[in-house]
């Protein structure tokens, strides 16, 4: 919300966007930005528009539509964080055509069979705590930005105390695809505290670099030995496996990779697998579900559902 207001107050941006619209080039806005930023600039005039449900009432009534994505001439609008993949894919389709958009979609998100199997839980134990849960998210150059940002964002919305920590020499890391991210602490400083959960985001080269961190290895060992919770998405399950922390634990695995299993306990195609104090997930496409599963284990379904409403993410009734 403050972000959309600050964008609105930037005169240079206003000029750029107005020129963009006058020249009939593509422009777009998501979540609160259609109502808070584009509307006062006069850029929604005679456009069908959608936006975040909490701000829907502010959109011009006759032109407001309750869809996830709305394309109206050069303008594309979308509802919120939970529809941002669809929003990005729609822009890719408008820029590069349907074939390109479809191939990105298949690669990133919705490969056949991944939507069907849902969460699986084995050896269920209680994760609830009598204090604010403290979560460490260690990251490295090459970590998957969407995974690390989504996990931190969803957990912070749920009022978890999150520390994002760099295993590199600098607080600043270069995530996969070149996105720069400023972390909260270096791993050495982070290691002075203990955490209720340690979660490793994926990204192939990032995972390899996480695996090389001796400090992280020690933290993960302690986590395992004291029975506290840990988990990983995508390629970072390998880090846990290589440190011997997945013995007897069931984990997720992509269906196509099941020919060469890391261990005997892989649950093929499941989006999120919880086995006692260990949680794993496939990756980009499933990271919001993964994060909401953590929220649900820590605080119950009601908290997870209310966080998912803010995200405009569909959360199953339970
Ligand atoms: C990791 O990324 C940071 C920040 O962009 C950069 O300064 C550093 O050189 C990178 N480290 C390696 C080993 O590539
Ligand atoms: C996740 O990991 C597998 C290999 O471990 C890889 O094929 C896939 O592209 C990765 N990325 C995503 C987006 O899940």
Automatic annotation (TrEMBL):
Protein name per its UniProtKB record: Class I glutamine amidotransferase-like superfamily protein
Give the family, as the similarity comment puts it.
Answer: Belongs to the peptidase C56 family.
Source organism per entry reads Arabidopsis thaliana (Mouse-ear cress)
Q: Which SUPFAM superfamilies match?
A: Class I glutamine amidotransferase-like
The source's superkingdom equals Eukaryota
Q: Which GO terms describe its cellular component?
A: cytoplasm
Stretches that traverse the bilayer: 26-44
Could you confirm whether the keyword Ligase appears in this record? no
List the NCBIfam families.
not_thiJ
UniProt KW keywords = Glutamine amidotransferase, Membrane, Repeat, Transmembrane, Transmembrane helix
Sequence ranges assigned to domain DJ-1/PfpI in this UniProt record = 3-94, 134-296
Cross-referenced Pfam families, in alphabetical order? DJ-1_PfpI
Q: Please verify whether the record's keywords include Secreted.
A: no
